[in-house]
Structure formats: structure tokens, C-alpha cells
Amino acid sequence: MTVTVERNDNIKIIALDGQIDVATSDKTRDDIINLLEKKPTIIKMPKVTYVSSSGLRALLMIAKTAKSEGIKVTYAEAIPEVVDVLQMTGFIKMLHCVPSRPWRTL
Amino acid sequence: MRIDLHPTDTYGEFKIRPGLFLANGTHIVPGGINFTIYSSGAKSCELVLFRSHEREPFAVIPFPENYKIRNVFSMIVFDLDYENLEYGFRVDSEYNFPLGNVFDKNKTLLDPYAKIISGRDVWGEQPDWSKDFQYRSKVSLDDFDWEGDLPLRTSQKELIIYEAHVRGFTKDESSGVKFKGTYAGLREKIPYLKELGITALELLPVFEFDEFEGAREIDGNKLLNYWGYSTVGFFAPKAGYAASGKYSMQVDEFKDLVKELHQNGIKIILDVVFNHTAEGNEHGPYISFKGIDNKTYYILTPDGYYYNFSGCGNTLNCNNPVVRSLILNCLRYWVATYHVDGFRFDLAAILGRNQDGSPMNNPPLLESLAYDPVLSSSILIAEAWDAGGLYQVGSFPNYGRWAEWNGKYRDDLRRFLKGEAGLAHCVAYRIAGSEDIYDRAWRGDCASVNFITCHDGFTLYDLFAYNDKHNEANGWGGSDGGDDNHSWNCGWEGDIDLPDDIKYLRHKMIKNAAAILLTSIGIPMILAGDEFGNTQYGNNNPYCQDNKISWLDWNDLQKNQDLFKFFKSMIAFRKRHPVLMRMSTGIPIGYPAISSHGTEAWQFDYSPENRVVGILFAGKTFDGKDDFIYLGVNAHWESHGVWLPALPKNLSWQVEVNTDLGDNAFYDEPAPINSAEKFVIGARSVIICTAKGV
Which chain B residues in 64-103 lie under 8 Å from chain A, judged by CB atoms? Predict the structure, then answer.
């Protein structure tokens, strides 16, 4: 799993690449939380191929940490298989997810 | 850093240490996983580790001698990838069948406390029977973001139970949901349940079972163990019911279903099967209990064979202290970690049998469940009989806590509604809370779960569409399923070329049943789909039918809107009247809370030919005003005029329900009644009147 900051001006865009599973979830979570600043943050997901149970928890904890600091985090462009997992387990209701590229309007 | 969570030994490449002996099953601890297992007779035990779905284990770790305290083995193994891990145990000791010891060190066994079980991850996917370890324990993450949710605290008096099968509820294309036949699909239907107004969803078994147990092919149709009354593991939600089962995320998916039900004010009750397991008798497979500690977990004959009080091959030894703990731990687990609100116990009479099979006066298990602190507000419902002939309706050891499926309610109502003679006075008792069976002083207000249909038997539509069961598709030559259905086809068997007047009568009969059920004192239970006339084509035992026979056909909801609207209105009616829920705070002066009437007010007709029952409920509304409800039932094939009981001077009768009026059976606006005349109740019709201020 790689975590890359693609843009950092009025908004921050963080791109993820790989699987978020038991081997990567703790580090992914910590890396992203360390990157959070007081600005809208978009986490790009199109290259995330799989999110496991521990991965779901990482995504949720990022969102919760951000919320507690007043930062809006949006998960964008997840592939259908990942969206399905988020829907089946209900985690999607606790995350802000969008199918498209919201930064185009920001 | 805790000093008891670092490795003390190595075994091959694995770092290990003695584990948490007081735990059961597996727990994730910092850096590792704790494995604990009990066996009273085992001499040695091995932990067998597999990577997901692989045929051969990647490690077999014997529990060292110092990893055992008496009968408990416990070990922490460090640095395991718990998401990609399946595990089991191999237990070795002497084989001695007459003594009940059937240990086999070659069998890899499921953890009795497994919280996730893999092997049947996707419903109906053909298993690879050549694998010798079919049902595999997995490690579960217990954390979940409940967003403040807890089991609901609303009174049991407000229960209106809706009994449904997870898969059958949404599997049919007509359900219109995305994740058909799953927990997630059921969750998508919550707005429907909310609109109907039910307050509790009762699910047929969701503990892991094998749909391929006893699978057959009849006339080209695959028959499966569709209902699932055959538990493989008590702590694991059925993976094949989860859309996410292939990712082993069924725990999260099920919890999210519970959370969303609770957010919509709907409780969840699980139908739990503790009377037997899927291991069958001496010819059945080794899955878990049999190979770990046969004589602890099963009731055995003096020569080592299995007692069969369940009719399913074996009988769980429920009042053995170890098994009792397992059951108690299981229920506590479902309440504490899944927020489940209650349980319905299948063949619950077995739970009161002694270790030799005899019924007990004060069964420790049932007493423990009744007084357990975690279960203290849980709904406990017994199916108060078993297949060994123990029938305890009304006498189930209850400690003032347990409710029962009231089989008498079902049978008396069915027979009365179809027009049998001699039942009017029984039906008056049933409607009034069956106090002849359930003494209110001992049993409380919620002992009787009233139902006319349940998963076992005809649907409500079929009850009035078939005189005889039509179980040919089950492949037993029509020998399976009950014959005491007390059904009546309204003059036309089945649906082929159905005349309109017969269809009309059937809808009226369904509304009669619904009107009585939802005004009766006790907890009403509705079978899913009855509210829109779902049919099983006359099959009264579709336990094996994973197809359109069992699946709800949601097209019927559109076709039978009159039925749905009627159920919905009746449910709302019940909720408006505390007197029907034993929640009334007082009684109007000069009236008993419940009284029975004949065609003449205050004069019940006890003659066997009488088929007219009038029940007057008198109580207070939620805002403290006098409330009167008159339920008039005419099960005769001719109409009868009845005098309604006189009301206090400031009130007059109005009719709200008359099932003789077809689509308009539930009035949009109640209609006034001329109290100087008899009210004529149509043939095979039910009326409900309420009092209105003048």
C-alpha cells in the first residue's frame, strides 16, 4: 500500500494504491492521520483493490479522527467491489464517499 | 507492556506462550492470538492452522504439557495473519464407544466457540467434500461502531413479532433489493417493515449451519437444508446469509442490520436451536463437539448411543454444567456484542431435560437464563415441546420470565375460523390472553405468543386455499409435514382457475384472522408475507425448498394491496389502544377489563353450535380517557345480529372494521352505529367497534 499526497493547496488530495488489509491497515491509518491538516481532504481510492475487515476499521478511524479535528474527509472513486463491501457492511453510512472526483469543483 | 503477553517458547518458526485459561475460543491479544479449548477426556490436543481455503495446514502445534490446566488447553501464538487464518483442533484420547468416548486424532475439529465459520461462505456453492475439514473456525474482530446503540428498552407488551427467513425474504427477483437473500438485503427492506408497523423481527436460525446437510435432488430440483434448524456453530452468524460472506465480513454485516433495525424502533429476536447439533448420531460427521468431548455435549444412552429427543439424531446435553455455560455464554454474546433483543428457543422442552433425558422440575439452564444479568431484559420465548413427547405449553418452567408459542391459540383459532362447532368459549379465552393456560399472577402479561401461522405449516393464504398439504416437491411421497392443519380451502383447492367469489372469501378469511390476532391479548406474531397473501402452493413443510415455493413473491404485495393495507391498519389500531397491550392505566367504572358476549350483550352462548363471539375490552387511552373496543366475530356461514354492550352515556359506538366490506374492511372514517338496533355481522366476518364521545 502506498500513500501519496497528490495535491496540497486549499485542499489536500491523498492517493492510495494497493490493498488495505491486516498487513497494511495500521500503517495506512497512521500515515493518513499524520498527513491531516485543517483543510478539506480527499482520499482517492481507484487503485485500492481490496479493503478487508481491518481495512474498514482503518477508513472509519481516519474519518473519526478527522471529524474530531473539524476536518472534512471524503473518500472518492472507490471501485465497485470496494463500494459493495462498504455497502454490505454498512460502513458506507459512517464515511463520506463519492463516486466521482469532487476536487474538480474545489 | 504486559509481562504475560510476550512469548515464552518457540515451536518451529512459531513463538508461543501459555494462554488465557479462563477465556473460551480465540481472542486477539497484542501481537498474537489466544486459543483456549476445553475437553474433559482429552490426553493431548493440537492446534491446526490453515491459510484461508487451503487444503493442507501450514502448521500443527501441539499444546505443550504446561499449556494445560486440568481439562483446559490454552496457548497464545504470535505473529499470525488473523484475517487469512482458519484453525481447528485435533484431540486425542482413548476410543471407547460404550463409555461415550469417540476421540479420533485424525479429525480436525471446529472450535465450539468459533465466532466466524468458513466453508460455506457463499450460499449454495457446491462444497468440496474431499476436504476433511469442512467447517473452519476463524478469528473475529469484536469491535464495531454502534453509534450509541444498545438493545431496545421498549416494553415487551408492545411487541408485534414478524417471523422471517433471511434468505427467503428478499431472494426473489421481485424483492427489488441489491443484495438479494442476505442480511444486507433484509436491511434494505427495513422501510417496508417500518411502514407495516411491526415492532420485532424474528429470524429463522442464523447460527452457522450447512445448507448441504441432507441435500437431495428430486425431479431435477436441488433440495437443501433451507430452514437451517441444524447448528454447526452457536457463535457464528450464517456466512451464506451475508452478501459479504465471501470476505468473512458477516459479523459486521449482521451487526449493521441490527443497528439499523434499532434505529427504526424494531427489535430483533433470533430463533435458536440448542436442542441438537448437525453432528447427527453415531453415523453422523465429526464436526466439533463429538470429537472434542462427546459425553459432555450429548445425552447418551447407557451403552453410548445418542438419545434422539430432537428427532434429528442427537440431543444436546443442556443441563451439563459445561454445556449450560456454553449456551449461557452464547446468548450473552449475542446480546452483548450483537445487541440482539431476544430469543425463541426451538424445541425448548429439551432445555429442561436432565442428563439422563428425564424432565426436570427446576432445570438449572432455564433458571440461569431467566436470572442472568445480561439477559435480564431479553425476550425469552419457548417452543414448549420436543420430539420426544414432552409437551409443556402452559407448564414450561418459566420463572415468570419466559413466554411460549401458544400452540393452543393457533389450533383453536384455526378450527373456529373454518367453522367448527364447540370452540366459541375456547376462542374467547384465547382472545382474552389464554389465562386458562397462563395464570397472569405467575406468568405475567406477556406469556402468550399468539399466532395463527408460523414458518412451520401453511401460510395464512394457504390455510384458506388448501384442505390438504401438497408436499410432493419435498420428495417424501407426501409423508412429511403435519396433517393437523385445520385448514379450509373455501370450496376450491388451490389457485388454478380460481373463481372470484372464492378469492374474495379467502381475503375475508385472512382479514378475519388478522383482526382477531391483532386485538388478542398477548404478543401477536405474523408470518412474513402473510400480510400480502404469500403462498407456498400448499406446501406445509418447505424446509428444503430454496426456491419460489419458499421465497416471498413481492409481486403479491401489489396484487393484494387490500390485505397489506388491512394488516397495516390493524397494527396501527393495536398500537393506538393500550388496553390491547395490557398497558392501560385503569378501567372505566362499572366495566370489567375484558368481558365476553353473545348475540345478546353480557350473555355468552356456551352451546356447541354457537359460532359468535363478542369480546369487550375496557380500559384507558394513552391520554387517560375511557376506551372501549368491541370485537365481534361471526365464524358461522350465516349472518347474525348482535347487541353491543351499552356504553356510558357520554359515549356511543362506531364501527372501524368490518371484514365483510372487501377492500374497505378498515374504514377510512369510523361510521356511527344505531344502538337501538342489532348490528348484523355478515357470514364469516369480523367487526371491530370503538367508543366515541357524543
Answer: 81-84
